[in-house]
Fold this protein.
Amino acid sequence: MRIPVRLHQIPARLVTGLFILNSGIGKRGADEQTAEGVHAMAAGAYPFLKDRDPREFVRLLSAGEIALGAVLLAPFVPSLVAGAALTGFAGGLTGLYLRTPGMREEGGLRPTQAGLSLAKDLWLLSIGLGLMLDDLQDR
């Protein structure tokens, strides 16, 4: 019988799960100005989001972050599943970093001062991939 979470995976799942859960809870009940700012940044990177209502977008984003945080924290969810969910979410956030003007130094991947808050999403992507690869290697 496979154990869904291996001991060495717990720190990564715990820290990322709490971080993302906190982010989602923080977005619940976001005011109009916050919702418009979050939506504008997302729509700038992903134009298909432009027609979404900002408050609805942030409500769904909040729910998604809360769900993802819970998945990462739940020890009965296999690391392959939790890692895949984190990788997908972090991939979207990494797209914000790569597509938003002013986040990176000219001609490279190094973050500007403004881009530091988004560059950390590469860590989330790496953690998600690590959880997946670790679980796949064990099969």
